């Protein structure tokens, strides 16, 4: 058996949830937001409702000056400066609060894209990697909204393979400037930003970050792109033709641009999950309200079982997503504080914390973006023909959603990264996968334990989660042993294993959230949340089983394959559960609440 250590012995490291048991007491849940955090959330909601939603059509038409003016209004209310230290004009709030802001503003369609790009990739590279002089010059203006930020990494021929960029930088003969030549594409906020973080290769080799201001000689932009969705966000190409950037605007170390790009992406992935969650909540509420008023066969369609199933599944996926998101946000927040106590700087602490939980950030990005895609798709379906009309918000949400599975690293790249990072940590000795994996192999050869489950609350569910983790270890361990150095080329297998991990992490997060709520409020008050968790767990068992079988079938055969199929079936076995009735109860709560109000 796997020796699952409890997380109250010491804080979990990134990826350790696979081999160690977490406890409710050591798990942060959204119901624990403090009063200030709830006030910040309400302020964001009010801003979206009063400043953004009434003019979304104007925003989508890229009305000149409108988006920058809205960002300035947001800056006046402190919504751009949550994460910035007070020394640079920011509010200096904790990581959970900044995550709440990203979620609450996520229902703002194109505005949420512009503000997320500004506060994330538009500001954080300078805040984390800039010199003191650079931070003093740029961060206060970015925090207030006086200046807007953007980020130039992607090029026409380098998307996921960012380090293959062709933009070059050469030191001028007088040593005062770097001369940039090349182009960047898909630059959010590019049409109006004042300051850009741009990556180029010095002498064609050393991948390096630069701070480039609007108006710099040799720096121009292309016209606005015509996009499928997020039409109100500015997206342009940037052109550099003998662009003269002062040597004082080199960002970070020469040749270490990848450190900036990849570290900022870790945080961006979690924040993207938060934004997609906010968008999904708004889309669900819009859909529920429509279903209550749309009548067919003399009844509101919200009363039909097929519609209840759809609405409930929307709520289930969001609630589970939220559990995983804030569980991870608290881990990052705790790690940040621990690093600060060790004497690390603000930037070193947050970057170190985000890097520690890069595996979880990648999983959250995948899960959150796919939850939003599911929600808006079902939202259009519930709206019927009206969902295909621009007169209804859900059509805008549908179009806007699709980009989230592409940027901040495609979901395919993030799935591959999830497994790659776990295996690399195991190889470096940071994550002991071998011991529990060998224990699982030994268990496969033993007689199954058919003993009675503990009568304690949620004992069955705890056992299921332990078994799900064994399924991951069995499949991943067999893949490593069988494929060895060829494993990195078997992307389908890696994505199967990633899907198993993503499902298990979020199922466990949901269980821990329910357990903590039950301890606090009692079983009766947590009945709907328990319905959500058990319904998700029941369905997740089948998804884990399918992903595991697909992986095993790719590299095993004969008796070995049959044995592992038997083991996989054992590890993903759950008792029957009436998901129809639980979904009806969940849907009835959505209808009674007039939207998603968990």
Extract low-pLDDT stretches: 1-8
Tell the overall outline: globular
State the name of the first-level CATH class of the largest domain: Mainly Alpha
Counting structural domains, the number is 4
**Percentage of residues assigned to helices:** 55-70%
What is the CATH H-level superfamily of the largest domain? Butyryl-CoA Dehydrogenase, subunit A, domain 3
List the total number of helices. Answer: 19
CATH architectural designation of the largest domain: Up-down Bundle
Major sheet size, sense and barrel closure? 8 strands, mixed
Structural class: alpha+beta
**Rounded to an integer, what's the Rg over CA atoms?**
25 Å
- The number of strands is 10
What is the helix/strand order?
A: HHHHHHHEEEEEEEEHEEHHHHHHHHHHH
CATH topology descriptor of the largest domain: Butyryl-CoA Dehydrogenase, subunit A, domain 3
Descriptive overview:
With 598 residues, the protein is of the alpha+beta class. The chain folds into four domains: 32-148, Acyl-CoA dehydrogenase/oxidase, N-terminal domain (Butyryl-Coa Dehydrogenase, subunit A, domain 1, Orthogonal Bundle), CATH 1.10.540.10; 150-255, Beta Barrel (Butyryl-CoA Dehydrogenase, subunit A, domain 2); 258-413, Butyryl-CoA Dehydrogenase, subunit A, domain 3 (Up-down Bundle); 428-593, Butyryl-CoA Dehydrogenase, subunit A, domain 3 (Up-down Bundle), CATH 1.20.140. Helices cover 56% and strands 10% of the residues. The protein is built from 19 helices and ten strands. The chain has helices spanning 35-52, 56-60, 66-76, 95-104, 110-119, 124-129, 132-144, 257-293, 305-341, 346-356, 358-383, 393-401, 411-427, 434-444, 459-483, 491-521, 527-555, 558-571, 579-593, and strands at 149-152, 168-171, 177-188, 195-202, 206-213, 219-221, 235-246, 250-251, 295-296, 299-300. The strands form two sheets. Strands 1, 2, 3, 4, 5, 6, 7 and 8 form an eight-stranded mixed sheet that branches. The protein has a two-stranded antiparallel ribbon with strand order 9-10. A hairpin with a 2-residue loop joins β9 (295-296) and β10 (299-300). α16 (491-521) runs antiparallel to α17 (527-555) and α17 packs across α19 (579-593). The longest helix has 37 residues, at 257-293. The radius of gyration is 25 Å and the shape is globular. Mean pLDDT is 94; it is low at 1-8.
């Amino acid at each position: 058996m796997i020796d699952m250590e409890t997380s109250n012995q010491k804080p979990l490291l990134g990826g350790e949830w696979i081999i160690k048991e977490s406890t409710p007491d050591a798990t942060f849940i959204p119901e624990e937001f403090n009063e200030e955090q709830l006030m910040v959330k309400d302020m964001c909601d009010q801003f979206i409702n009063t400043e953004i939603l009434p003019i979304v059509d104007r925003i989508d038409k890229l009305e000149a000056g409108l988006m920058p003016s809205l960002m300035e209004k947001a800056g006046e209310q402190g919504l751009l400066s949550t994460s910035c230290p007070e020394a640079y004009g920011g509010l200096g709030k904790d990581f959970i609060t900044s995550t709440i802001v990203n979620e609450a503003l996520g229902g703002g369609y194109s505005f949420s894209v512009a503000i997320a790009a500004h506060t994330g990739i538009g500001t954080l590279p300078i805040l984390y990697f800039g010199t003191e002089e650079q931070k003093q010059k740029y961060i206060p203006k970015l925090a207030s909204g006086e200046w807007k930020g953007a980020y130039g990494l992607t090029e026409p021929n380098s998307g996921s393979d960012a380090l293959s960029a062709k933009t070059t930088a050469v030191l001028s003969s007088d040593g005062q400037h770097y001369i940039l030549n090349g182009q960047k594409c898909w630059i959010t906020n590019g049409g109006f930003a004042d300051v850009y973080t741009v990556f180029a290769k010095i002498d064609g080799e050393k991948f390096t970050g630069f701070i480039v201001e609007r108006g710099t000689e040799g720096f121009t932009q292309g016209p606005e792109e015509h996009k499928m969705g997020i039409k109100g966000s500015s997206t342009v190409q940037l052109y550099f033709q003998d662009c003269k950037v002062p040597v004082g605007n080199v960002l970070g170390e020469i040749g270490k641009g990848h450190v900036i790009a990849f570290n900022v992406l870790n945080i961006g992935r979690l924040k993207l999950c938060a934004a997609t969650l906010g968008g999904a909540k708004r889309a669900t509420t819009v859909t529920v309200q429509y279903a209550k008023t749309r009548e067919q066969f003399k009844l509101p369609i919200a009363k039909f079982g097929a519609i209840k199933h759809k609405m409930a599944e929307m709520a289930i996926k969001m609630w589970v997503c939220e559990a995983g998101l804030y569980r991870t946000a608290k881990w990052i927040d705790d790690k940040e504080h621990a690093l600060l106590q060790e004497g690390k700087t603000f930037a070193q602490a947050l970057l170190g914390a985000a890097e520690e939980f890069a595996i979880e950030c990648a999983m959250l990005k995948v899960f959150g973006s796919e939850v939003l895609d599911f929600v808006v798709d079902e939202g259009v379906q519930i709206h019927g023909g009206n969902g295909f009309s621009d007169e209804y918000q859900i059509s805008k949400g549908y179009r806007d959603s699709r980009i989230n599975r592409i940027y901040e690293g495609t979901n395919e790249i993030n799935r591959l990264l999830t497994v790659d990072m776990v295996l690399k940590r195991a190889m470096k000795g940071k994550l002991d996968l071998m011991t529990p994996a060998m224990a699982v192999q030994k268990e496969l050869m033993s007689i199954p334990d058919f003993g009675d489950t503990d009568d304690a609350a949620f004992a069955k569910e705890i056992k299921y989660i332990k078994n799900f983790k064994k399924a991951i270890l069995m499949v991943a361990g067999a893949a490593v042993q069988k494929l060895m150095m060829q494993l990195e080329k078997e992307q389908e297998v890696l994505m199967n294993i990633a899907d198993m991990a993503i499902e298990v992490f979020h199922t466990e997060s949901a269980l821990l959230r329910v357990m903590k709520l039950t301890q606090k409020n009692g079983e009766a008050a947590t009945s709907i949340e328990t319905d959500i968790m058990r319904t998700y767990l029941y369905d997740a068992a089948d998804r884990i089983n399918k992903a595991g079988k697909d992986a095993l079938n790719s590299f095993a055969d004969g008796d070995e394959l049959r044995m592992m199929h038997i083991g996989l079936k054992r590890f993903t076995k759950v008792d029957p559960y009436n998901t129809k009735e639980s979904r009806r109860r969940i849907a009835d709560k959505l209808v009674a609440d007039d939207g998603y109000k968990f």
